[in-house]
C-alpha cells in the first residue's frame, strides 16, 4: 500500500470536504469533515451505528455477525452522512475508508463501498489506518499539532505512540497480551455485568472502594513502556472466586480496585514513554499528551491522565467520548490530512487485518480476540 511513504508537505490551501467510512470492528460509521485551508477541521455530519445489540448475547464481537451487520446497513449510513451534511457526492473532494487493522470482513465492506463510490463519482480514494485516525483525532477536536505523545486505549489496541508528524509514528510501547478495553470487557463478563464491559465496570466502580482489594500493578517500574493486563484479569478472577458469592458492594469494590490498578499501571507506563519520547526527539521538553480510544472515556482514567500530565509538565487533550470511540469523523479527518499531503490510493488497495502504525516496530503477539496487538 505504501500510502504513508507518498506523504509530502501539505500543498492545498483551500477548504476540502472528505467523506470517511469506518467498519473495522463493531461500529458502522460514516461522516463528512471539512478541512479548511488554515488547518482547522469541522465535523459536518457524523453517523454511527453500533452493533452492540447483535453481539450482546455472545459477550463479545463475533466477526461474521459484524461483517453481515456492516453489509446490511453501510449504504444507509453513508447516505445519511451525506444527507445530514446536505451534500451530494459531487461536493466531496475525497473518500476515505479504514483499510486496517481490524476484522477483515468488516474492513472489506467499508473499503469496497468507498471504492465503489470513488469509482462512480470519479473521486480520489484515501486508505486510512484506523490507529492513525485515533492518533490524529486531537488535531480535529483541539487543533493539536505534532509532535505529541498519544495513548491509545481501545478494545483491540493499547499502545503509546510518539506522533512525530502525520504519517510518521514511533511506537514507544504496546500491550504484550490483552488490550485494556478487553481487560475491562473480560472483568465485566466475570462479574456478570454484560457487554460492553467498560461502561458497566465504570458505573459500578463509582460506589466502590478502590483500596479494598490489593491487585497487581502490571509492569510497574519496568524500563520499557509496554503494557500487560492478562495477569491483572487473572488476579481479578482469583479474587472473585475467593469472595464468592459477591454482594453488590463486593462487585463495586472489585470494579473500583480494578480501575485503581489499571490507572496506576498506565500512569507508570506513561512516565516511561515520556522519557523515551524526549530521547527520540533529542530534547528535554514536555510534549502534549493526547488520549484516544474507547477506554479514554473512563473518568477515573481521565483524572489519572490529568495528574500524570501535570507531573510531566505536559498539556493533556482528551477528545469527547463520542470521538474517542470508533467513528467516521476521525477517518474523514485522517483522510483529509493524508489527502492534502498527496496520498491517493488506487482501486486495488487491499484491506489489511494487521497493519501496525509503526511498521519498523517489532511485532508483539497479543493473546486476545483480534490477534497481534502490535
Ligand atoms: O475504541 P473503541 O470504541 O473500539 C475499538 O476500536 O476497540 O473501544 C471500545 C472499548 C471496549 O472494550 C469498551 O469496553 C471500552 O472501550 N470502553 C470503556 C469505557 N467506554 C468504552 N472502558 C472503560 N470505561 C469506559 N467508560
Ligand atoms: Zn478504534
What is the CATH topology assignment of the largest domain?
A: Nucleotidyltransferase, domain 5
If you compute it from the alpha carbons, what radius of gyration comes out, rounded to the nearest whole angstrom?
Answer: 20 Å
What small-molecule ligands were found?
5'-O-[(R)-(carboxyoxy)(hydroxy)phosphoryl]adenosine, zinc ion
Average pLDDT metric = 93
Strand order of the largest sheet: 3-2-1-4-5
What's the tally of helices? Answer: 11
> Based on the structure given, which CATH architecture of the largest domain is correct?
2-Layer Sandwich
Can you tell me the residue ranges where pLDDT is under 50 for at least 5 consecutive residues? 367-374
Strand content: 15-25%
In helices, the fraction of residues equals 40-55%
Quickly count the domains: 2
CATH class term of the largest domain? Alpha Beta
Q: Decide which structural class fits the backbone.
A: alpha/beta
Shape: globular
CATH superfamily of the largest domain: ATPase, nucleotide binding domain
How many strands, which pairing sense, and closed or not: the largest β-sheet?
Answer: 5 strands, mixed
Amino acid at each position: 500500500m505504501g500510502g504513508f511513504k507518498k506523504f509530502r508537505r501539505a500543498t492545498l490551501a483551500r477548504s476540502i470536504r472528505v467523506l470517511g467510512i469506518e467498519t473495522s470492528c463493531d461500529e458502522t460509521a460514516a461522516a463528512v469533515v471539512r478541512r479548511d485551508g488554515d488547518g482547522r477541521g469541522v465535523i459536518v455530519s457524523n453517523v454511527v451505528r453500533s452493533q452492540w445489540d447483535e453481539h450482546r448475547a455472545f459477550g463479545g464481537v463475533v466477526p461474521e455477525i459484524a461483517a453481515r451487520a456492516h453489509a446490511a446497513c453501510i449504504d444507509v449510513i453513508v447516505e445519511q452522512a451525506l444527507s445530514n451534511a446536505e451534500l451530494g457526492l459531487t461536493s466531496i473532494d475525497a473518500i476515505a475508508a479504514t483499510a486496517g487493522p481490524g476484522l477483515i470482513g468488516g474492513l472489506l465492506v467499508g473499503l469496497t463501498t468507498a471504492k465503489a463510490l470513488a469509482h462512480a463519482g470519479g473521486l480520489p480514494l484515501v486508505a486510512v489506518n484506523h490507529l492513525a485516525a485515533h492518533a490524529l483525532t486531537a488535531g480535529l477536536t483541539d487543533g493539536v499539532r505534532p509532535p505529541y505523545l498519544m495513548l491509545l486505549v481501545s478494545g483491540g489496541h493499547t499502545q503509546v505512540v510518539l506522533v512525530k508528524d502525520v504519517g510518521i509514528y514511533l511506537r514507544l510501547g504496546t500491550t504484550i497480551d490483552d488490550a485494556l478495553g478487553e481487560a475491562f470487557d473480560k472483568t465485566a463478563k466475570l462479574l456478570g455485568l454484560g457487554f460492553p464491559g467498560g461502561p458497566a465496570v465504570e458505573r459500578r466502580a463509582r460506589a466502590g472502594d478502590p483500596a479494598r482489594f490489593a491487585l497487581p500493578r502490571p509492569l510497574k517500574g519496568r524500563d520499557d513502556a509496554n503494557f500487560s493486563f492478562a495477569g491483572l484479569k487473572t488476579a481479578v478472577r482469583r479474587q472473585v472466586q475467593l469472595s464468592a458469592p459477591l454482594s453488590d458492594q463486593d462487585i463495586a469494590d472489585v470494579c473500583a480496585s480494578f480501575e485503581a490498578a489499571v490507572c496506576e499501571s498506565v500512569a507508570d507506563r506513561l512516565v516511561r514513554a515520556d522519557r523515551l519520547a524526549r530521547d527520540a526527539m533529542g530534547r528535554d521538553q514536555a510534549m502534549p499528551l493526547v488520549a484516544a480510544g474507547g477506554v479514554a472515556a473512563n473518568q477515573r482514567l481521565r483524572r489519572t491522565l490529568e495528574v500524570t500530565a501535570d507531573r510531566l509538565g505536559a498539556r493533556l487533550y482528551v477528545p469527547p467520548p463520542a470521538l474517542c470511540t470508533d467513528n467516521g469523523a476521525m477517518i474523514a479527518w485522517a483522510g483529509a490530512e493524508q489527502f492534502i499531503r498527496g496520498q491517493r490510493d488506487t482501486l486495488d488497495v487491499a484491506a489489511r487485518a494487521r497493519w501496525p502504525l509503526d511498521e519498523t516496530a517489532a511485532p508483539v503477539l497479543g493473546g486476545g480476540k483480534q490477534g497481534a496487538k502490535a
